[in-house]
Design a protein that fits this description.
The radius of gyration is 31 Å and the shape is elongated. It is 42% helix and 18% strand. The mean pLDDT is 85. It is built from six helices and six strands, in the order αβββααβββααα. It is α/β, with parallel strands linked by helices. It has helices at 3-14, 66-72, 76-79, 143-156, 161-202, 209-222, and strands spanning 27-33, 40-47, 56-62, 88-94, 107-112, 118-122.
Length: 223
């Protein structure tokens, strides 16, 4: 398992829902960092909106060797000497490369198997329930650095980001209109089915073939 492969797994894990022990980030990026801080993240995600753990960012540092991990945990934005990227922070590595008792305070740990399966060993993602105490896993965040990450991402989309935003709003309006039409069509189908059942219940019973034949015969004899 090389670094690029594990980084791709980290991005997938950042998007996992809480039901699968994931941070449930709507946005997940690889190889990002601030311009002036010198800190870079192998994988970084952001979750907005309510939910277990609340809104916030999650950092994942990928390690494929012991020496890399031992050097990384000495960095000031890793060991808590100063704020860094990620409200929640994890190391992701091959199974057993890092032991939980070696982690800096408040860090989580994710093991990757050779088949790409991920197992959360510790961290806030193991407690997805509402009302859980996430305090032990929360880190002071370098808000300026995270804003730089998002600003640079938007800048890479092109010079006129507002035009893209306008297109997105237009697409959302069209999607809302299509949803409204689909709901109205569904209501119409349900109403049609209800009327058909009502007509079937209230329609008079057809005369039996025997009675119909007798009536015809009587008319001929009478003639």
């Amino acid at each position: 398992m090389n670094h690029a492969y594990l980084t791709a797994l980290a991005i997938r894990w950042l998007r996992r829902p809480p039901s699968r022990s994931g941070p449930n980030c709507q946005l997940a990026l690889s190889e990002v960092g601030g311009v002036h801080t010198g800190e870079r993240a192998d994988a970084w995600g952001y979750r907005y909106g309510p939910g277990a753990g609340g809104p916030g960012s999650t950092l994942v540092e990928v390690k494929v060797s012991r020496s890399d991990f031992l050097a990384d945990r000495k960095k000031p934005h890793r060991n808590g000497e100063r704020a860094g990227i990620g409200q929640y922070r994890y190391y992701l590595c091959p199974a057993d490369l890092i032991q939980p008792d070696e982690l800096p305070a408040g860090w989580g740990l994710v093991y990757a198997s050779g088949k790409g399966r991920l197992k959360v060993i510790q961290g806030h993602a193991l407690s997805p329930a509402w009302g859980a105490d996430y305090t032990p896993w929360v880190h002071p965040v370098d808000d300026a650095c995270e804003k730089e990450i998002l600003a640079h991402l938007l800048a890479r989309l092109g010079p006129d980001v507002d035009a893209l935003n306008a297109q997105f709003r237009q697409h959302m309006k069209q999607a809302d209109r299509m949803h409204a039409v689909e709901m109205e069509l569904r209501r119409a189908r349900l109403e049609l089915a209800r009327l058909r059942r009502r007509v079937a219940r209230e329609a008079p019973a057809d005369p039996s073939p025997q009675m119909a034949g007798s009536s015809t015969g009587d008319s001929i004899d009478g003639a």
